[in-house]
Write a structure and sequence with these properties.
Helices cover about 30% and strands about 5% of the residues. The protein has 3 helices and 2 strands, in the order αααββ. The radius of gyration is 15 Å and the shape is elongated.
């Protein structure tokens, strides 16, 4: 069960649309449908631009994760080497 902070909730149609999108991601597809819908109700969409840093190892808390729906993401080891592209 998710603990949801107070705030505006999505309507059933929007949750259903987001849930459908989550089902196309292997990680989410394996989750029980109820849990996936609960997540769809509280996910936050973010847009990142070229060169934006989403996470710094050892600096950021690492208390969230990202699902990339379009575009590319590069991972670096912090010392200038690409880990994954």
């Amino acid at each position: 069960m998710l603990t949801v902070p107070p705030g505006p909730r999505r309507g059933a149609l929007e949750v259903a649309i987001i849930d459908t999108g989550l089902q196309s991601v292997r990680f989410f597809k394996k989750l029980p449908p109820l849990l996936r819908r609960e997540m769809a109700a509280v996910l936050v969409a973010e847009t990142a631009g070229t060169g934006d840093v989403l996470y710094r190892r050892g600096v950021d808390a690492g208390d969230c994760f990202y699902v990339v729906t379009s575009g590319m993401l590069a991972l670096h080891d912090g010392e200038g080497a690409d880990v994954v592209r």
